[in-house]
Write a structure and sequence with these properties.
By secondary structure, this protein is α/β, with parallel strands linked by helices. The protein has one domain: Alpha-Beta Barrel (TIM Barrel). It is built from nine helices and nine strands. Strands 1, 2, 3, 4, 5, 6, 7, 8 and 9 form a nine-stranded parallel β-sheet that branches. Strand 3, helix 4 and strand 4 form a beta-alpha-beta unit. It is globular, with a radius of gyration of 17 Å. 46% of the residues are buried. The structure holds pyridoxal-5'-phosphate. The site of pyridoxal-5'-phosphate (PLP) has 14 residues, from strand 9 and helix 9. The site of pyridoxal-5'-phosphate has 14 residues, from strand 9 and helix 9. Keywords: Pyridoxal phosphate.
Length: 234
Amino acid sequence: MTEEKRRDQIAAALAEVEASIAEACRAAGRAREEVTLVAVTKTYPASDVRILADLGIRHVGENRDQEAAVKAHECADLGLTWHFVGQLQTNKARSVVGYADVVHSVDRPRLVEALSREAVRAGREVTCLVQVALDDDPGRGGARQADTAAVADVVAGAPGLRLGGVMAVAPLGEDPARAFARLRDIAESVRAAHPGAGIISAGMSGDMAEAVANGATHLRVGTALLGRRKPLVR
Ligand SMILES: *Cc1c(COP(=O)(O)O)cnc(C)c1O
């Protein structure tokens, strides 16, 4: 596909996503400005990030460090805010802190310690969201619901890190609206203890409206913007 065709394709998809978000905000009685669109660019090339940036996107998300590090470097001139949204091993903390402004997938004290150490070392402040496993199955990442407050406290006390709020992926097989309602309750208790931690990262291509209805401040949208991803070959 030519660069021009790809641009038209992404522009059309972005317009549709924006219309969906606007409609969801209207339905929820919220202002569009309360919701940040994070374009999840995993598996797509840096050229797509450039197109998105040219179309006004300021926030991009990635889920694998190896890929993200290269892309963030290639796009360093764009001044974008980089969100790391994937499961994260402690041995990748140094690399991720090198480019990520926000890490959405903080789910255990050992990871907090590693991110804190590397942020201090790099002289950076990294915003961290506590990922919540809304089905209490940490297999796909995330702290158990009952452990969320404790992980949030550890982040809040860690040098180099700022507690931003919470993040979740809707569990398979559950109505996302119900799951996101639970996340909203958890977010409220985290915010009661840490007034600056107002971010609720929830909602992907398939459940943006349910997320907005339940207070999401950040939507992480990939497929609806860039198309279906090919299955990952690892
Ligand atoms: C890939 C990914 C997304 C985007 O999902 P889409 O369904 O493609 O919009 C959002 N959040 C996380 C954590 C992801 O890994």
